[in-house]
Amino acid sequence: MKFNTKVIHAGVHPDVATGAIMTPIYQTSTYVQEEIGVHKGFEYSRTGNPTRQALENNLAAIEEGKFGACFGSGLAAIDAVIKMLSPGDEVISTNDLYGGSYRIFTTIFEKYGIKFHFVDMLNINNIKEKINSKTKLIWVETPTNPMMNIVDIKKVCELAKENKTMVAVDNTFATPYLQNPLSLGADIVMHSVTKYLGGHSDVVMGALVSNDSKIAEEIYRIQNSSGAVCGPMDSFLVLRGIKTLHLRMQRHCENGEKIANFLAQHPKVENVYWPGLTSHPNHDVAKSQMKDFGGMISFTLVGDSLEMAKQIVSKTELFTLAESLGGVESLIGHPSTMTHASIPREERIKSGVVDSLIRLSVGIEDVTDLIDDLTKALN
Ligand SMILES: *Cc1c(COP(=O)(O)O)cnc(C)c1O
């Protein structure tokens, strides 16, 4: 089955009891047993729920995986991955990481004796230097936030295989429409379903997908034991959202390209970070592992004026000032005072997050309206 068919059909079946074409919202905590141990495959909704299961199977299929598991948020999914490790184990992670991932690694799991190394993964030697017999996991995020760096997933996975280390990829920015890390050799794919998969800014959810039955067994054990599951209503909303993932992503990419080109030619704009531009330092890697380049764009202003950046993000009308990304509506954000405010200024500037950096989550509105909006704000 091709991707565009899978998003609509994979994992979902008409309801056996009624013929309902849409997967019902099984709003139930428990299931009647005919006699002890005799049931229809469901016992308790933390362990399993038919609406959630349909979504888990759909997600597995669109990520080229066999096993899907959904959680109450993206961070709950990350939490489950790190809980597969033991005290003394080490993790190598990208250094320009989603802030929440950095926070859970350093403020929650370091306390339990897991050690995290944060390296620039654009140079594979930085990973090699940190790998040792205690390394159990390499945590990759690509494209990264907000600099849109592209990590070579295949190269990282080859290095990990030589060292018998697991690789997990946070695929939130790319979505399975653009990139399938399992096919490139990764062991686990993680999603903040909150973003493009849900797609309508109305759900917080996370997911893990894998191909290895042993890894999946561990994930399901932790999902059930720690209990950070998502509810049936949210599962329904995401199943519905995913049915248009391919159409939305196609438009996000088309609008992204037009806006990246518009910004690249604007006299007040200094740098544009979008992996589809041939000027992007990792454009070739992006081209080899991604189907297209998405709708996430960052840019800086000539003169790097903080005041001007603040004015621009407050003057746009269609681009709404907000955190998050991946919804149908366009959002604008200012990383140095919003998502990255807790990072010391010098460190943040070293990684490219300068005072005037502005991040766009380009939505699926009419692109001429979006460009008009940016033109007015920039003037
Ligand atoms: C939002 C996000 C997360 C965290 O997901 P939540 O659903 O907010 O818990 C993790 N990684 C990336 C790249 C994200 O954008």
Tell me the strand percentage band: 15-25%
Total strands: 12
Strand order of the largest sheet: 1-7-6-5-4-2-3
CATH names the topology of the largest domain as Aspartate Aminotransferase, domain 2
Shape: globular
Unreliable runs: none
- Radius of gyration, in Å, reads 21 Å
Determine the CATH superfamily of the largest domain: Type I PLP-dependent aspartate aminotransferase-like (Major domain)
Name the assembly state.
Answer: single chain
How many separate domains make up the residues? 2
H-E order: HHEHEHEHEHEHEEHHHEHEHEEHEH
Instruction: Examine the secondary-structure arrangement and name the CATH architecture of the largest domain.
Output: 3-Layer(aba) Sandwich
Q: Can you summarize the main beta sheet?
A: 7 strands, mixed
Question: DSSP helix count?
Answer: 14
How does this structure look, described?
- With 379 residues, the protein is an alpha/beta fold.
- It has two domains: 240 residues, Aspartate Aminotransferase, domain 2; 134 residues, Alpha-Beta Complex (Aspartate Aminotransferase, domain 1), CATH 3.90.1150.10.
- The protein has 14 helices and twelve strands.
- The strands form two sheets. The protein has a seven-stranded mixed β-sheet with strand order 1-7-6-5-4-2-3, with helices on both faces. It has a five-stranded mixed β-sheet with strand order 8-9-12-11-10.
- Helix 1 runs antiparallel to helix 2, helix 2 packs parallel to helix 9 and helix 3 packs across helix 4.
- The termini are far apart.
- The mean pLDDT is 96.
- The structure holds pyridoxal-5'-phosphate (PLP).
- Pyridoxal-5'-phosphate (PLP) binds next to helix 3 and helix 4.
